């Protein structure tokens, strides 16, 4: 299997190198001086998001022969939230099983943190796990929504936009370099970001702070690791239906159990079909998804799981509205006849684990992933003049495919009083990316009459690009335990090679090569007292490659960061409660951003910045009594531009509020005539923030109120009826990020019925 390591290596970073679109036109309202600091691919997304509000609507930038059957034990995970019924035991109840389903709101372990089964309370790093029950109680509709109750995970900074899940962790944009799935990098590039369907997840883990020591190139703020639904030993079937705001129709199904009469082979099949409008009248949110999985576990030491997914999404080419004065109007500048975005994506991969002895365990994960996208959109030429908005048209077609793999050997052994869990591994990825874009003219829009019936010609493709990228990483980690003391040591070296050719369709220039390498690591120590309190300290580093050239012709070097963190965790003995708190400082250097010319007519990429993120955060998850669950979070963030675009030094990065807080409480009656009835509610507070990096205006503080009612029908076992409402009081103030303003998602109400049998 080791040869597969090199067949499936994969990841992607969008090129903006020599010959790419490193220079673009802008007016004063579209000044790149307000676009801030972000990784190469993230700058591309913000151009897809923010320029859709004032320039280039679909250009992301600033902004994945059988032996005799053996009957397996049910899960042996020691989960604070309770045992996950029917999850596979045996070999996969170790590190690979640490992310499997957990009943309740509190997870005890996550392999995402250390690639081992080290309990979260002993991990010297801030880690949050959003469990499946949390996702279900809130009936989460997107990855962005899933993160809204987690400390320091700032979601929705670009307002309503079903095309992408965008978010910050500890102030750093993690949209492109911060998403992993089942422990492997989930690729993205330019307009192509993987669509995430929450119904297909068992949980997601948020690792705060640099994590390159285990995962390679990643952003400074942290990563999110999504755990796909897996086969179970116990059979079940579930069907569901939803209806909600904006004519949201959705049907779901989920089935799992032994395959045939086998005691060693298990399956799972999950599906979603959705037809939905959105707050924007020209943007839909339609989806089809099918996700089969199968596990073969012939004995307690061996498991082989295949995970796959095929998904198709139809939405709008731009979700933006005509800009107001530091605000947005309710007028889309798109056209219903020229505003489609169609994305198809698929993935198939495997996870293999073999316990070789009491000391050694071998693991390998690999995945192939492919995506393609086609989009049509309009964009405005500056602000409206005398009520007339001039517009241009654009088309984009892109493909991205490749493979990623991680092979590791774990050894558990003692040296005197020291207990070691040592993990050594090699991982990597390979990607191929193609891009074609075209730009043309479109009819002007009279903001008084709003005539959307005029024809729009599809422009020809005029820009093309092809890119391949290879990465290889070697890592070694040792978790040393001395009674209640835990020391975590990790080191990694990565090599990345990128080849990029740009030009016109059918006439690409010679490919430009760029090679980068980086050494990263982590050291941490924690001590678990008898009363459940575990103070810790850690130091970690990260890197992320940048593709392109400075104005002087020198190649960009990787963006690097280092973090110091002090924290404490509290897992109350015999109580289903985990509280984590930390203070930290992250310094990032050599980020790439756009610097405007003297007259603001053009901009060019330069590498000069230094950012510093300082903060405090506290997060808690609890199952206080039977039926009563709770999550709490608070974060303080001081995000300062140390070096950057002239006029921004010493300022706060836009859309990074100093204060955020959230609380969710859910209670289900356990006895009596109301048994099975439940009610939940939550409040999310987002403090004031600056609307641009020049700090010339602010976004107001705001609070969102969410609620849920659910009933497990006692007369029909397995039937659950539920109503969820988000943003009940319809908080709709504009949200401005990097100098552009976006519409918040309005109040949403969704009713759902699920029947499990």
TrEMBL record:
It is a multi-pass membrane protein. Pfam families: Plug, TonB_dep_Rec_b-barrel. The keyword Transport applies. Its main location: membrane. Residues 122-223 form the TonB-dependent receptor plug domain. One of its GO terms (molecular function) is siderophore uptake transmembrane transporter activity. One of its GO terms (biological process) is siderophore transport. It is found in: Cell outer membrane. Residues 299-728 form the TonB-dependent receptor-like beta-barrel domain. GO terms for cellular component: cell outer membrane. CDD domains: ligand_gated_channel (cd01347). Keywords: Cell outer membrane, Ion transport, Iron, Iron transport, Membrane, Receptor, Signal, TonB box, Transmembrane, Transmembrane beta strand, Transport. PANTHER family: FERRICHROME IRON RECEPTOR-RELATED (PTHR32552), FERRICHROME OUTER MEMBRANE TRANSPORTER_PHAGE RECEPTOR (PTHR32552:SF68). Belongs to the TonB-dependent receptor family. This is Putative outer membrane receptor protein, iron transport. It comes from Aurantimonas manganoxydans (strain ATCC BAA-1229 / DSM 21871 / SI85-9A1).
């Amino acid at each position: 299997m080791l040869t597969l390591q090199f067949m499936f290596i994969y990841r992607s970073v969008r090129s903006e190198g020599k010959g790419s679109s490193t220079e673009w036109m802008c007016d004063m309202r579209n000044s790149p001086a307000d676009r801030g600091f972000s990784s190469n691919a993230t700058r591309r997304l913000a151009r897809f998001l923010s320029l859709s509000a004032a320039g280039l609507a679909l250009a992301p930038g600033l902004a994945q022969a059988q032996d005799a059957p053996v009957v397996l034990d049910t899960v042996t995970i020691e989960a604070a939230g309770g045992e996950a019924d029917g999850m596979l035991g045996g070999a996969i109840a170790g590190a690979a099983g640490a992310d499997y389903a957990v009943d309740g709101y509190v997870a005890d372990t996550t392999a995402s943190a250390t690639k081992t089964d080290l309990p979260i309370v002993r991990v010297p790093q801030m880690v949050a796990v959003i469990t499946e029950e949390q996702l279900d109680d809130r009936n989460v509709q997107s990855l962005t929504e899933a993160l809204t109750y987690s400390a320091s995970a700032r979601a929705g900074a670009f307002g309503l936009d079903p095309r992408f899940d965008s978010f910050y962790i500890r102030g750093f944009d993690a949209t492109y370099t911060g998403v992993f799935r089942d422990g492997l990098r989930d690729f993205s590039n330019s307009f192509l970001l993987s669509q995430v369907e929450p119904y297909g997840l068992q949980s997601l883990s948020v690792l705060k702070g640099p994590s390159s020591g285990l995962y390679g190139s990643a952003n400074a703020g942290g990563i999110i690791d999504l755990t796909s639904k897996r086969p179970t030993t116990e059979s079940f079937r579930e069907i569901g239906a939803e209806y909600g705001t904006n004519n949201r129709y959705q049907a779901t199904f989920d089935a799992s159990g032994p395959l045939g009469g086998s005691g060693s082979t298990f399956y799972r099949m999950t599906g979603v079909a959705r037809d939905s409008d959105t707050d924007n009248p020209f943007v839909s949110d339609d989806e089809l998804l099918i996700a089969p999985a199968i596990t073969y576990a012939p004995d307690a030491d061996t498991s082989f799981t295949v995970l796959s997914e095929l998904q198709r999404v139809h939405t709008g080419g731009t979700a933006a509205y005509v800009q107001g004065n530091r605000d947005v109007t309710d007028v889309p500048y798109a056209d219903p006849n020229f505003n489609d975005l169609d994305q198809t994506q698929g993935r198939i991969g495997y996870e293999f684990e073999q316990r070789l002895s009491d000391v050694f365990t071998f693991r390998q994960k690999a995945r192939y992933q492919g995506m393609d996208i086609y989009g049509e959109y309009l964009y405005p030429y500056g602000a409206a003049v005398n009520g007339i908005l001039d517009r241009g048209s654009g088309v984009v077609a892109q493909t991205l495919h490749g493979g990623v793999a991680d092979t590791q050997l774990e050894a558990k052994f003692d040296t005197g009083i020291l207990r070691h869990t040592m993990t050594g591994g090699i991982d990597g990825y390979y990607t191929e990316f193609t891009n074609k874009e075209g730009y043309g003219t479109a009819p002007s829009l009279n903001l008084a009459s709003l005539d959307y019936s005029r024809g729009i010609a599809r422009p020809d493709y005029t820009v093309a690009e092809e890119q391949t990228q290879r990465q290889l990483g070697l890592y070694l980690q040792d978790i040393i335990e001395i009674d209640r003391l835990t020391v975590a040591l990790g080191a990694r070296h990565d090599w990345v090679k990128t080849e990029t050719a740009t030009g016109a369709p059918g006439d690409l220039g010679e490919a430009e090569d760029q090679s980068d390498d980086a050494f990263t690591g982590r050291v941490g120590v924690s001590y678990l007292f008898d009363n459940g309190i575990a103070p810790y300290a850690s130091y970690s580093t990260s890197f992320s490659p940048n593709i392109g050239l400075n104005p002087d012709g020198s190649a960009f070097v990787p963006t690097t960061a280092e973090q110091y963190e002090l924290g404490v965790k509290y897992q109350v003995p015999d109580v289903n409660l985990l509280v984590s708190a930390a203070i930290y400082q992250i310094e990032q250097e050599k980020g790439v951003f756009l610097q405007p010319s003297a007259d603001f007519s053009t901009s060019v990429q330069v590498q000069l910045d230094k950012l510093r993120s300082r903060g405090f955060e506290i997060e808690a998850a609890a199952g206080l009594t039977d039926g009563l669950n709770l999550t709490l979070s608070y974060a303080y963030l001081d995000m300062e531009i140390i070096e950057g675009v002239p006029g921004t030094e010493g300022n706060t990065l836009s859309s990074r509020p100093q204060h955020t807080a959230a609380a969710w409480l859910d209670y289900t009656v356990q006895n009596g005539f109301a048994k099975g009835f439940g009610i939940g509610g939550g409040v999310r507070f987002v403090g004031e923030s600056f609307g641009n990096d020049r700090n010339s205006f602010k976004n107001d503080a705001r609070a969102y109120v969410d609620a849920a009612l659910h009933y497990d029908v006692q007369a029909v076992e397995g039937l659950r009826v539920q109503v969820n409402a988000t943003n009940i009081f319809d908080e709709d103030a504009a949200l401005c990020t990097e100098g552009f303003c976006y519409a918040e998602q309005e109040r949403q109400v969704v009713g759902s019925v699920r029947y499990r049998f």
